[in-house]
Amino acid sequence: MSTIDNTLTSFINIASDSDFSIHNLPYGIFSDTKSGKHRAGVAIGEHVLDLSVLETEGLLSLNGGPYFNQSTLNAFIDSGRDNWTQARQTIQTLLSSDNATLRDNADLQKKALFKQADVTMHLPVRVPGFTDFYSSKEHATNVGTMFRDPNNALLPNWNEMPVGYNGRASTVIVSGTDIVRPSGQLKPNPDDRPIFSACKRLDFELETAFVVGKGNHIGQPIAVDDASDHIFGMVLLNDWSARDIQKWEYVPLGPFNAKTFASEVSPWIITMDALAPFKTACPAQEPKPLAYLNEKSSDNSFDIHLSVELLPKDAEKATVICETNFKYMYWSMAQQLTHHTITGCKVEVGDMMGSGTISGPTPDSYGSMLEIAWNATKPVTLKGGETRSFIEDGDTVIMKGYSEKDGIRVGFGEVRGKILPALSFDFDK
Amino acid sequence: MSTIDNTLTSFINIASDSDFSIHNLPYGIFSDTKSGKHRAGVAIGEHVLDLSVLETEGLLSLNGGPYFNQSTLNAFIDSGRDNWTQARQTIQTLLSSDNATLRDNADLQKKALFKQADVTMHLPVRVPGFTDFYSSKEHATNVGTMFRDPNNALLPNWNEMPVGYNGRASTVIVSGTDIVRPSGQLKPNPDDRPIFSACKRLDFELETAFVVGKGNHIGQPIAVDDASDHIFGMVLLNDWSARDIQKWEYVPLGPFNAKTFASEVSPWIITMDALAPFKTACPAQEPKPLAYLNEKSSDNSFDIHLSVELLPKDAEKATVICETNFKYMYWSMAQQLTHHTITGCKVEVGDMMGSGTISGPTPDSYGSMLEIAWNATKPVTLKGGETRSFIEDGDTVIMKGYSEKDGIRVGFGEVRGKILPALSFDFDK
């Protein structure tokens, strides 16, 4: 599965820099304006292939199906790995240059192929649980340096476990959803009481999230060498954060209001099968993890190039403000999932598990505004000359990601979110 | 709604100390051994009234229904307050002494009435989100005294907001489910690395949880004076906790593995309509909360007597180890819900929001073993002479709760959970 057949081509015209090559085939939920119906599709070049049509036409018959004339992918994912494999093979064959079924059937193409520009993407799965980890050593070190103690930036548990916390599944939203600037409690002056205010230090967090493909039973942890069997795929995640709200609220029970207003994901789930050729090692782990976290395989990470762009309201062009890579993550997804379940916690199909902010070793690879502008001491200059320490009203943040090797590209597309002004509140009415 | 008609009686024989008087009528999901089918019922004395039968017989016709031949109450709750009111009135009438419909129809009684002892109770709702607050001042002070600084036991944000954190909805389980002792990372010796071990400081937390009855839209906070419209009812909650795992993991992102293995709830949802006669004031709040948390009504709490019993494996009798009251809670449920949504977080029908451990002012009213045995320095002596600092294998913890006034009792029944020995792990295989 991890070798690339780079002779494989599609009859559909796909630009060489497209994220959605025939080697990718990510799953999403889309609707067109005509029917408005939500159903499953696969991205191919600039198109979406409607999987519900393939099912109806008898071209994609999976055990226990049909699965794709539905508004989420949960049932398909829950149907198991054999179906994942069969679906991928069938779809890849149908899209390949040397298969006539779809290639030579203009009527079928008309029914089954949509331009991505003409459809609306929706959240690909119902998300029963959302968890966020904190697994970039560079990010944890940067935050610890700014907020706690530069000489002891990493807390002692950080090197021993993939630290994580429960997020809020109800506010996992799909790319393109505008976000109202949150209001809440801030404490700008340490000597005064807190105030109620719109957030003044609004930030993004560049993350990926994996989608759980197979659950466990309560009380039965997932062994670390089995964990990859439980992962279906990955998305990009912008875990929007209100830094000033966070700073005041987070001791002792962790971030809450600062993180629960919006966790925005890219619409296409890139399967682990598509990412397999881009496996690479995690950074060396020192000390060696406790046995329950100790993986046999060292190829437990992925080489995924990631970037963040910022587009102010009236700007002509976005400015790239971060370029980094998923491979910098210290803890692997398998370790995260095993740690999550080690006390018996149940995970479910569709659960999303965020990586935590992915920062690289250099300032241009930091994955949050907090780090890039170093707690507002080093504002970033954008293309039009504007500067930013945090995100302002009207700003759009765009995150992108792709893997590339031997001329083959497998990409995530983007997660894009725009900030709307805060609500006005009148508490005297 | 808040006056009690204590002339109202049922034709069903109900003991005077029953939690399930005709004034209560809590909702749950049950199955009998014959059909195995999960459907909704109401507890009345020692019986369950099958609401799906009432619907089938045309005795309970709600707008948009039927609702009760289902395995969760979410659809009924989501149908709105008019239906809650109508269902309560209809069921109360059908069960009253002076109504002949059910009273004089032996066939209907046979179909619709089951002994509670003969049925199995299930989780009453699908729980999309689980949140835990920390709203007992006594509990927060006790924990802060033991773990941080006796002179500054309460952290500065505690008096300003109902501090809370996201829990794990997937492991909300119903009373009667046994719990495997969790294993995970502990750090018994500060100078050594952590170890992997079964939890040695397993604890309960006496809580209630409210069930969200009406959601909001993302980005649209719920105003504090509207919050009670969004609450359907309450349950008892034992938020099982692994204190040693918690201590090592919780800085900086809050409790995670220590709390995600089991949050156990009582099976009957007591409606806010049934609890209305027992309204009382929260403790005085000083300083006065910020405007967004400032309630017009001062009757924002409830007088609910709560207790915890511990029953060791081979003991004949349980020992009451805590008696307290919900009215000690500093922050109201309305304030919790408003704070939860103030930055725009969406809440959904069926969400459960835990109160946090409910401790009273005296040691016999503390709501966790950690506090009762004061961090293992004051072990509790049980009836048989055994002592406990934390919960041991085979122990059963039973929590009960009820309100009583003018000879009328409205109770929760119980949440009961037993601890099974930890799994054994073999990481060398």
From TrEMBL, chains A, B:
Active-site residues, record numbering mapped to chain: H139 (proton acceptor)
SUPFAM superfamilies for the chain: FAH, Fumarylacetoacetate hydrolase, FAH, N-terminal domain
Fumarylacetoacetase N-terminal domain span: 23-124
UniProt keyword list: Calcium, Hydrolase, Magnesium, Metal-binding, Phenylalanine catabolism, Tyrosine catabolism
Enzyme Commission numbers on file: 3.7.1.2
Gene Ontology biological process terms, A to Z: homogentisate catabolic process; L-phenylalanine catabolic process; L-tyrosine catabolic process
Residues holding Mg(2+): D239, K259, S263
GO MF annotations, alphabetized: fumarylacetoacetase activity; metal ion binding
Cofactors (names): Mg(2+); Ca(2+)
UniProt xrefs under PANTHER family: FUMARYLACETOACETASE
Protein name listed in UniProt: fumarylacetoacetase
Organism: Psychrobacter fozii
